[in-house]
Amino acid sequence: MPVIKTVRGKSPEIPEDCFVAENATIVGDVTIGRQCSIWFSAVVRGDVNFIKIGNKVNIQDGAVIHGTYKTAPTTIGNNVSIGHNALVHGCTIEDNVLIGMGSIIMDGCVIASHSIIAAGAVLTKHTKVESGSVYAGVPAKKVKDISEALVSGEIHRIAENYVMYSSWFEE
User: How many degrees, rounded to 5, is the angle at CA 79 between CA 171 and CA 70?
Assistant: First the structure.
């Protein structure tokens, strides 16, 4: 059974068509959209600020979603994939974004739509990622523009695949 807890009078809102793994943790002021999946050992911690997650978002194994008390909530748009062991903290991620495995997104960052954050990238505080970009490195910098093939072949494909994968776990 996943850990789903009320904190300071706020309870997570999770639609019935979402998959939440048995050892995932979702607490506090968290609103999750339709067809989302929260995978094994992922933590979505809305205890110190709110977290709003759009539709068709997958938060993969070991990822942590959090914010900063009174200053930095986390907002995630639609059709977003957050890779294994990523840390997403007090930032805004717009629609159609891929956050690579092990990447770190810090407070105040804004990742515009149709963008990819490479695996292992570190976006320092208040980084603004322009739409249609790939950012990589430590600290992360723009390395190229995204082609339409990358948008459909990676961003959309991964989001759709995770909707399918979660259906495999229906009881």
Answer: 100
